[in-house]
Amino acid sequence: MEKSIFEKHPSKLLNELYSKRNYQGANPVDAKILFVGRDPNWAVDVESKEMFNFVSEYLTDGVTFWKTHNIHHPFLLPNYKGDGKRYHKIFSKLKVDNEASSKISFVELIGFPTTGMAKTNNKIFLEYLISEENRNHLIELDNLLNDFDKTIFIAWGLIEDFKFLYRKTGLFIKFAELDKSEMSISDLNKFENIYIHRHFSDAISNATLEKMEIKLKQKLQ
Question: How far is CA 135 from CA 143, 147, 214, in A?
Fold first, then answer.
């Protein structure tokens, strides 16, 4: 199937769900662990798929979904074959059980659902990123990243996005002078309360995943 263009997701139902909860899993305000991504990406035709009732259930209450189905995301259902499945299969290698469901949240730089691949149209992605519609979401995310009681995991590629956001908005000041040359994309890098790693959908190593698993077990005790 041809890849859809990158855009705000056209599904009215999906956008309504995000207008109520613009995160996945636990509420990030209450969660102890945050995984931060670029944009909440869904297949363009997800609303028409048989599994959309599971998507709706998950976005309404991700904690209960994980406990009920013993999977942390509906993309892990056997009848889902689309984009995003690899990311969540790799996350599953961290061996986090559903007892941690109330402590883990997935949040993104963009607070409304998208479809298509952002890297195919970075100009549109950046426009969405600094749009007025996304402003309050960014302010909330900046506050979350400055909560030192939380442990935060971000993918390597987000460093430049945070630097861009600082230049355009003044938010995420902690990333302004972060020097990537002092870190390794192939390792787990610590910066304040933040761990920076290769994206789960990229060639993240088993060694990095093992380090992340150890950190998670320590923080979830």
Answer: 13, 19, 35
Q: 193 near 150, Cβ under 8 Å?
A: yes
Q: Per-10-residue mean pLDDT for the chain, 221 residues long?
A: 76 96 97 96 89 95 96 90 83 94 97 91 95 98 96 95 97 93 95 94 92 94 83
Task: State the Cα–Cα distance between residues 110 and 197, nearest whole angstrom.
Answer: 20
Q: Measuring CA to CA, how many Å separate 58 from each of 53, 68, 87, 90, 179?
A: 9, 10, 17, 19, 37
Closest CA to 215 of 107, 102, 100, 109: 100
pLDDT at residue 1 in the model? 41
Query: What is the residue whose two structure tokens read 């920076």?
Result: 196
CA distance 199 to 154: 8
Per-residue pLDDT of 123-170, as tens digits, reads 999 999 999 999 999 999 999 999 999 999 999 999 999 999 999 999
- 166, two tokens: 């600082």
Q: Is residue 114 within 8 Å of 40, Cβ to Cβ?
A: yes
> Distance of CA 64 to CAs 5, 80, 125, 193, Å?
33, 20, 31, 27
